Structure formats: C-alpha cells, structure tokens
Amino acid sequence: PTLATQKRLAASVLKCGERKIWLDPNEITEIAQANSRQNIRKLVKSGLIIKKPEASHSRFRAREHAAAKRLGRHTGFGKRKGTAEARMPTAVLWMRRMR
C-alpha cells in the first residue's frame, strides 16, 4: 500500500515538509488504515509517525574561509569580478584623503 496520503496529512499536522516525516516500516498496515487528521495525530502520539530532526547546516567551512580571507588569502586576480573602480571607487579614496 502506498502511504502518500498519510505522509501528506502527517506533514500538515506536524507543520513540516514530507521529507521530515518518518513512517514506521513495521506498522505499514496500521498506518495505511489512517485516513483522517485525527487518526494521524493518534499515530504520532503512539510513535508510529515521527517528525525527523532538522539537518544542521554547519558554518565551519565558511568561518575557516573568512578567517583565511582576513589573512589576505583567496583575493588574487582570479577571484575578482568587478573592476578596480567598482571594488574601491576613486571618489571614495579622494574623499578619505580630503578628510
């Protein structure tokens, strides 16, 4: 039996996406009987349907890269998109000098 309806209802009840819904593979027949939100809530309470935890999105590599950039790495010609003028306008440099 396909449990698409149950998964959709569970996602709605638990306020998350369908990819975060876990349906107990050993209780497929019982889950297949559930055809209402109330039934789904009962299965959630009994632990046959679980909301999976959010996957963490680590900032570790981003912080490492930022630290390296503070030391002047990754700033060669190959990493530059804008013109020198766009990156640091001469007008701004002039104003700084004047002040």
Describe this structure in words.
The protein is mainly alpha-helical. It has helices spanning 4-13, 28-33, 37-46, 60-70, 84-87, 90-98; strands at residues 21-23, 49-51. The chain has a two-stranded antiparallel ribbon.
Provide the fold topology.
Elements lengths: L3 H10 L7 E3 L4 H6 L3 H10 L2 E3 L8 H11 L13 H4 L2 H9 L1
Antiparallel strand pairs: 1-2
Helix pairs in contact: 1-3
Please give a handful of descriptors for the protein shown.
mainly alpha, about 100 residues, 2 strands, about 50% helix, two-stranded antiparallel ribbon
What is the alpha-carbon Rg in Å? 27 Å
Shape: rod-shaped
Which H/E pattern describes the elements?
Answer: HEHHEHHH
Stretches where pLDDT is under 50 for at least 5 consecutive residues are none
Helix content: 40-55%
Please give the order of strands in the largest beta sheet: 1-2
**Biggest beta sheet attributes:** 2 strands, antiparallel
Give the integer mean of the pLDDT values.
97
What's the end-to-end separation, in Å? 75 Å
Beta content comes to: 5-15%
Helix/strand/pairing class, anyone?
mainly alpha
Number of helices: 6
Task: Give a count of the beta strands, DSSP E runs of length 2 or more.
Answer: 2
Brief write-up:
The protein has 99 residues and is mainly alpha-helical. The chain contains six helices and two strands.
